[in-house]
Amino acid sequence: MLENLQLLFDYPTLGADLIANGLMIGAIFALAAFGMALVWGVLGIINIAQGEFVMLGGFVALTAAGLGVPPLATIPLAAIVLFMVGWGLYRLVIFRVVDRDLFVSLLATFGLSIILQQLSNEIFGADVRTLETGLGTLVLFDGQIVLAEIKLVSFVTALVVGLALWAFLKRARLGQAIRATSQNARAARILGIDTDRVYAATYALNAALCGAAGSLVVMAWTIHPYIGLPYTVRSFLVVIVAGLGNIAAVIAAGLGLGALENVAGFVLGAEYQIAFVFALMVIILVVRNFLLRRKREYLK
Amino acid sequence: MVLLNLLRSAAVALMGVGFLLSASGTVSAKVEGDIVYLGAAISLTGKYSTNGAHTRRGYDLAVEQINAAGGITVDGQTYKLGIIYYDDESTPARGAQLAERLIQQDGVTFILGPYSSGLTRAMAPITEKYGVPMVEANGASISLFQEGYKYLFAVLSTTEQYLQGAIALAAETADEGQILRVALAMENDPFSQDVRAGVIADAERLGLRIVIDDKLPPELNDMSATMAKVRALRPDLLVVSGHAKGAALAIRQIADSRIDIPMLALTHCDAAQVIEKFGEKAEFALCASQWAPGLSYSDELFGSARDFADLFEATFEYAPPYQSAESAAAVMVFADAFERAGSFDPAAVRDALAATDLMTFYGGINFDEAGRNVAKPMVLFQVQEGEYRVVYPSDTAEASFIHPTPRWSER
Which residue out of A118, A146, A217, A274 would a mutagenesis test of the B interface target, given it has the greatest number of B Cβ atoms within 10 Å? Predict the structure, then answer.
């Protein structure tokens, strides 16, 4: 660990390279976390199948590319297909658990995640898959920072999608309905909002966002049927840090997590990279709980 | 009271029947007509389903070929081979159950191994308990052979040997007095850590210095932290082991980050399809393999390694991965042992297996005390012009080892 820190001091640009690459990974976490925050805020459901939507998005992109669709065009395609998958799953399963206990929806989405994993294993096979985009590499500052262009694409996509989502929630009719439902579902219903449709749209939108993230994962990293969990965990972490109603905070938390994780992997050694993520999550939860308790006591 | 006595005698009678059944199950082999049955529980579904299918095709092809050539002659009589398959769903607990079922219910007394070390580890105690020989072709973990099993035989090289060739090859490239620096990026799972132990042992023996020793968590889908270290420390050799995911990530991220490494050695290149997926980016990588179609081994059943590959491709429409080749070899080992034992008595066959000295298209087969095949070395391919070419060991090499890997700026 000490020698790794020493390395960082000896080669200061290394830190910049680590952070730059970490931000790219973090953009994907943010993209997957937008939807989790939405679903949590609006339906009151913590969607454990989040990572499985990412995984499915990857396989949709792979399949489409196999049929001759240019790799980058698979990003919106994966989002559209996953939108439909999300809608279908809402109509099949999720609407039954919306007003129920949190535990019921946790179990239901956990079950969904297992079913999606096994189905993809059956349909797409268990192999680790990747999709080549043919994009090159960006070399900055005389080779001090080296970034794959596809990672840059995913970074920009995450930012653009975040901006679009923000505008959608602010301006669009459906976006306003989503916000109204999340504030008070009963009042929204009384005022004539079809909350069931809002729930379905929200869940489908979440799946679509994850689908876009998944298509980027398969192009920049790898995908296989069991890759979902890390993305679920990261999304959860991002959302508990950022809160439910704040898209800018989700982006910041996602990028921050990616960068921190990469630097931690470097300094502590790769074997502690995931452990670091979990430790961070526990610390944040404890601190949050502590702050909330003070607030509760104050209210009392 | 009378009732109790009745129950008791009934229980005793049942136990007697049970004993008879189990006894008959372990003594006589499963032979129906002129077909002798082997049993196999392999992963047809679940996360090992791809490799499970490779395994099954290897078994099937060998059985077909042996039967087509007239079967085997045991004690003056000819028999054909058959296999009873079950799907272990890629889970060890299911594998253990199925081993029990094959032996107890189906009366099979010869078992072909499952896919992966984990499944083999789950089944070996069962076959050992019943004294049923198991010849396995897909469980490479060294720990399988440290339990003192008497009925377990493996045709493949064990894990610690996977990348030792890379260390030997690297040592050959060193100048006089130069201390080579090695970086390790190994997944934190039993397989890759066995590989790591072998590499470290050989690095120490040959005087190489380990400068990076990262253990990648199995959930990890990115290696950029490790790659940053490699960029800073510039090792002479980078060794990566992390199944197909590790190979795919390493090839992709080294190319994406334009990291110049004189020598890169991997496992699972073929599973990750590095040539098909990454093309130019995979060029010059060294890949460990149990077997290759270009090797100079041959036998009377399949002909040369190349003949086996052609037959396999004609039958299944894809080039044989080594998993299929070693699986076919396992069936050949059983056939050979039956003929030499002259009976289907499990104990006699076990002794015949232990005395195996066979040459196959897959390589020599000769088991040591622990049941490991010591006659066949691992091979190393190098990706050259979009093809895997054997570069190590030197006596079976098809091409010479290209070293160092050209810099990215010169490609």
Answer: A146
Q: Which CATH number fits domain A2-299: 1.10.10, 1.10.3470, 2.40.160, 1.10.260?
A: 1.10.3470
The string over A136-155, giving b where at least 16 C-beta atoms fall within 10 Å of a residue's C-beta and e elsewhere, is ebeeeeeeebbbbebbbbbb
Spell out the residues 6+ positions from residue B368 whose beta carbon is closer than 8 angstroms to its own.
B374
* B161-289+378-410 shares the fold of B29-157+294-365: yes
Q: What distance in Å separates residue B91's CA from the closest CA in chain A?
A: 13
Q: Which residues are within 8 A (CB) of A233 and not within 5 positions of it... i.e. 6 or more apart?
A: A51, A277, A278, A281
User: Architecture of B161-289+378-410 per CATH?
Assistant: 3-Layer(aba) Sandwich (3.40)
Task: Compute the distance between CA of residue B167 and CA of residue B161 in angstroms, rounded to an integer.
Answer: 10
Give the pLDDT band of residue B15 (cuts 50, 70, 90).
low
The residue of chain A with its CA nearest to that of B90 is A126
Please state, in angstroms and rounded to a whole number, the distance separating the CA atoms of residues B155 and B2.
59
B180: Cβ contacts below 8 Å, ≥ 6 apart = B170, B171, B173, B174, B208, B209, B236, B237
Cross-chain CB nearest to B245 (options A22, A150, A224): A224
Q: A22–B271: do the CB atoms touch at under 8 Å?
A: no
pTM of the full predicted structure?
0.82
- B46 vs A121: CB contact, 8 Å cut-off? yes
pLDDT in tens, B40-88: 999 998 878 888 999 999 999 999 999 999 999 998 999 999 999 999 9
Q: pLDDT tens digits, residue range A105-120?
A: 999 999 999 999 999 9
Does domain B29-157+294-365 fall under CATH 3.40.50.2300? My reply is yes
C-alpha–C-alpha distance, residues B119 and B140, integer Å: 11
Q: Is there a contact between B211 and B232 (Cβ–Cβ < 8 Å)?
A: no
The residue extents of the domains of chain B are 29-157+294-365, 161-289+378-410
